[in-house]
Specification:
Length: 403
């Protein structure tokens, strides 16, 4: 009898271990959504680019005030951003950062404000929707400081406009001293500098100019925007690294030195490199504002923030939230096939807000006019079906519950 119970206990332990392993094998994606009206107002609306200073007044304004054109917000809005970003991060497993370690935070800025204004998209709505909100990066920096990080770096290599212009335009330099006084000391680094040609999978190019600083980082936290894209189909976590990391010092303005006709392959190549040199990554999507990129359409507030250690899973869920079928997006398919993460429905666990509650039924499709350009998503981004919705419009249920 005693032997029977020993065998039974052993089998029970095996079952529990197997169950835990299977559960642990899923990639976790967190979705946090702000439904409180007061919080949403601070999260989405308390943001303004002080554009009372026009281009021809910039030098005079700087000489007179010592300031420069940049976004402004209230400290109360920083607290709200901290609350929701921390919630999303913790639900995704938290910052895997030990005391004394180095974290690098990469917000997706793309352009400084000046070329955005020049193109006619310099309004608050476009700036909030097209780029990751600086307050998300500040929230992560604060969390890292609370965990005793030895070095907190915020770095970006924008496609157009200098890195330092983005830091000034989007408020990182504006609040740096105030944050340091609170014990949150972060350094700003030009991600375009000090690069090294590193080999990838060879899908599009043999080597890419990658910032060397990534070799010194213990935790890499890229923060992406939430929008569709005229090359890749969607621009989420994978593209934030794939196009955002290579140095513009080498590949030039708009990063056209990368073979954009194979943009999906480029994105997978660069993600593979960053995973090899810095495997500890946490990806965040600022979906507080959402919409389309180039041509820029009016963005709308969704109030959502997403996070995951798996960029592929995060892109798959993010695409489904846009009401696109994730299987149709070339970057996601290819990244999953190369082992960079998981994209299958039953391999991903969504925590926080459920996927069905997060899906935006009427998320705007990319304008048909843009699809007639030579660099259409189906050619460059290997997007197979741009119009197929994830959720059926009539019945409101998934067309492809397992993608």
């Amino acid at each position: 009898m005693k032997r029977f119970f020993v065998v039974l206990m052993a089998l029970s332990m095996v079952f529990l271990f197997t169950s835990a392993t299977m559960a642990g094998g899923k990639s976790v994606v967190s979705i946090v959504k702000c439904t409180d009206k007061a919080d949403l107002k601070l999260l989405a609306n308390d943001f303004h680019f002080n554009d009372d200073v026009s281009h021809n007044q910039t030098n005079e304004y700087h000489e007179r005030t010592g300031d420069y054109p940049h976004v402004v917000w209230s400290e109360a809005s920083e607290e709200v951003w901290y609350k929701y970003v921390k919630d999303a991060v913790n639900k995704a497993g938290g910052l895997k950062l030990k005391k004394g370690e180095t974290i690098l935070i990469k917000p997706n800025y793309v352009l400084s404000a000046y070329p955005m204004i020049w193109m006619g998209f310099g309004d608050d709505n476009s700036l909030q929707g097209a780029f990751a909100d600086t307050r998300a990066a500040l929230a992560v920096a604060r969390m890292a400081a609370e965990q005793g990080a030895g070095r907190i770096i915020i770095a970006e290599c924008p496609a157009l406009g200098d890195s330092w212009a983005t830091y000034r335009n989007y408020g990182l330099e504006w609040v740096q001293k105030r944050y340091a006084a609170k014990g949150i000391k972060y350094e700003l680094l030009d991600f375009c500098d000090n690069w090294e040609m590193m080999p990838g999978l060879g899908l599009a190019s043999s080597k890419y100019p990658i910032p060397k600083i990534l070799k010194e980082v213990d935790l890499f936290v890229p923060i992406a925007a939430f929008k569709t894209h005229e090359y890749a189909g969607v621009t989420l976590a994978l593209k934030n690294i794939g196009i955002g990391v290579p140095s513009a010092r080498v590949i030039g303005m708009c990063k056209f030195g990368l073979p954009h006709q194979d943009v999906a392959e480029v994105i997978v190549d660069v993600n593979w490199i960053t995973q090899k040199i810095c495997p500890n990554q946490l990806h965040i999507i600022d979906a507080v504002y959402a919409g389309t990129w180039v041509p820029v359409a009016p963005y709308f507030a969704s109030g959502m923030i997403m996070a995951s250690t798996d960029a592929v899973a995060l892109d798959a869920i993010g695409t489904a939230v846009m009401n696109h079928n994730p299987r149709n997006i070339g970057t996601t398919r290819m990244a999953a096939a190369k082992g960079l993460g998981k994209m299958e429905y039953d391999e991903i666990e969504v925590v926080g807000v459920s996927l069905e509650d997060a899906i935006m039924q009427d998320f705007p499709r990319h304008p048909y006019k843009a699809r007639m350009w030579p660099w259409t998503p189906n050619r460059y981004g290997k997007v197979s079906n741009w119009d197929q919705k994830y959720r059926d419009e009539l019945y409101g249920v998934p067309n492809y519950p397992r993608w």
